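Example 309, ligand calcium ion.
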Amino acid sequence: MWHILKKLLSNYTNKLMTRQKIIIDCDPGIDDMLAIRYALRSPKLEVVGFSVVSGNVADYKGVNNLKEILYQENRLELPIHIGRGRPLNKFFRDAEDTHGQYGLGYFSDYHQLDKAVAPESASEFLLAHADCTILALGPLTNVADSYLLNPILAKSFKIISMGGNLYEQGNMSEFSEYNYWVDPESAKLVLNHLDVTMVGLDVTRKLKFYPEDVVDETDLEILRFYFAFHQKYENFYGAVINDPLVVDYLLYPQDYTSQKVKLDVLTEEGEYRGQTIVSQDNDYRLNQALVAVSDINKIKARIKKQVLN
Ligand code: RIB
Ligand code: CA
């Protein structure tokens, strides 16, 4: 009897001790910063490294922001990789109007950090760690490049992507979400061929932070820019905080409702560019899109506790 109990206890503690290995592909970016903090501070996750994609800001600015975030978290040992630095087949369009000229709102007090970008490209890094779950917080350029480099190995990827919108209005246009609008060819390729859980505006629009949620002066300096953008374009002085929900879903999937669906993205220039649609075509891979949350206030409280206190 004792041996059975001992075995059960050891299995349980091993399960507790096994941290889920993840890679974060990001375009930091204010909400990326909060998601990165959330992941780095979770005892259940092991962040193996980062790849930076051009999105909110060009990748070289994103790298500077990621270095600053890793410095603040005392995790500068983690590797940073970059990719092609522009969409597969569109002119790059940043979101500095939303995240600020450097990408972290009004923050500009950067430390001089002696850390180089890793020699492997983003796609080589993602393929070399195909056993890790990819948290894709920006346009899907790096993930698409990994598929183009090695489609067989990329098929084993498990991707949780912040992007798209099935039922909610877009934030780049009436129809499209920014990440999938910036590089629609990459989004189409990844959603058509790889295993993706789409964390779209359908759930992220529900997560809003306000000035009273922020206690740290530097955080307020960063978020104030984001609040002003939302006041101008979304008529409320606060911010929709998208990327941390990717991390929260990974940690608490039971608090989300998903819909199995064949996802596609429109790539033609025009008002529907980047729109996420449900495809009836048999060639498209069955993915899942998050469509509802159990209790957004409970989710907001645990994210806020981890990243804004
Ligand atoms: O549309 C919101 C998404 O685009 C977020 O990931 C934000 O950081 C930007 O990348
Ligand atoms: Ca992002």
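Summary: The pocket of alpha-D-ribofuranose (ligand 1) is lined by residues 27, 29, 31-32, 55-56, 137-138, 162, 171, 177-179, 242-243 (CB under 6 Å).
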